[in-house]
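User: I'll paste a sequence; please echo it back and then give the predicted structure.

Assistant: Echoing your sequence first, then the prediction.
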Amino acid sequence: MFRLILFVLFILNVFAEDINEKIVKLDIGTLRGEKYWQGDFYEFYGIPYATAPKGRDKFKAPLPVEPWEGILDAKNNNIGCEQVYLFEEEDDDDIILDGVEDCLVMNIFVPMVAKETNLLPVLVYIHSGAYSGGNGNMAKYSFVAKHDVVVVSFNYRLGFKGFACLGTEEIPGNAALKDQLAALKFINKYISKFGGDPKKVTLAGFSVGASMAELLVLSKAANGLVDKLILDSGSALSPFAINRDPINTAKNLAISMGYNNTEKIEDLNEFLLNATIKDLAVKSKNFYLTNSTFGLAPCIENVIGNTEPILTESPLITFHKGDYEKIPVLTGFSNMEGISRTVKFSDWSELMNEKFEDFLPADLAFDNVISKQAFIKEIKKHYFKDEEVGYDTVQEYIDYFSDSMFKYAIMRSAKLHALKSKRPVFVYEFSYVGKLNFKHQFMHKIKGASHRDQTAYILDFFEYTTKTSDMDTRDRMTTMWTDFVKYENPTAYESILIDVKWPKYTHEEQSYLEISNKLKVKKDLFANRYKFWDRVYEKYYWNPLPVGADKKSK
């Protein structure tokens, strides 16, 4: 009897080990993941997907992943790429560099039902952070992994390491995009070993992550690697999505670090190659610029030597040509994206009254001062009713930045996808306000959803709520987003929480879903203000050119 009890205990122990960990064997090494304590999925953290180049090669494309011996316990969820954090006032001595150079790792969250014989769809997230911050661990992905999709997050190089662009052999540009491409290739090659379907990979992003996700999908370099696209609060056409003058951006950075400007590209190139990572990271940090950019951004590349460029023409040109892989798209924004700019309201309201032209989107290039001033006059009348920007016009201030920095570009992208592709396009406006929304100084008088608020109900940014309507909103959104991943249809199945059918957005029927306390199907989202902005963009859009080319082309 005693032997029988020991035998049963042994069997139970073996079984427990089997369900509490998952071993995945790849040709580059073996990984061990652990079962999430509160869900039926396994967590794999810190999986190397590429190798960051070092020394004088640090701005170049990533190198192949280096194989490892034995079993790698995939538990390290503290790896991030080099960055500094944003503070209002800081001394150089107080600035701490965080992150590591060997940061090109990904996290994979695998439902227990996923096997090589039962492949599940894959959802891949590109994180936000204004091109200079963030990492693949800035959110937890448990709420989407619980819906039986394999979820992936990853790091990419940040700041000038990721986005410096001189068009030289050493600094060709778009290192971060090339990291992201390497991650997609790794997923395509290995995700089936985890139980993910490499033919059903949805690429998603929020804020700048969304803009880069769309840039990748428009690039031939990513053909065959992505089969659906989710964009939350960002687009490849956003004013912040492309750096139109990357050499001048790099020059200004270098001068602020002591560079003696010689006007020679080779001297600037050499200075940046020898700059310290701390200095590069500090000067990369531009969360709030008046022209609706973050300073750094991807660039239009030149073909240099043996480098393989990702982005070689304006995304708008690619759209118009229709020369990209057509896939289903889910895209949208929060109803008051511009709340995110109220952080600078006190300073900016005064500056807008003094010199409004500094607050025009960076992707507009007027042919003369008269044209620019005429448009500024229109903005002041259309948004501010010719009143000064101040406390009484906070809502108008929010509306201006919502439209100019976010909404127009996102709607323009949606319209082009619907016009150029026969694949389904789904558009939403998020207006729900709960405890997970961005906290701002005007909450007593302004009620709306800010930039990226919708993502806080899909992912877990380490905020806590017990409010029933918050949890209902989270359940609605994670179900719709993952149903899109699975079925190309975000409302494939009705339920108590999802009681409408989300119609496709087409050129003829411009339907969309309003996501608030309830779901409502509406039409003609942002129609009137779109016309206001479209008229000026048709005339004055600054089409980005390859680095080093003549600066302005409309």
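The mean pLDDT is 92. The longest strand covers residues 196-206.
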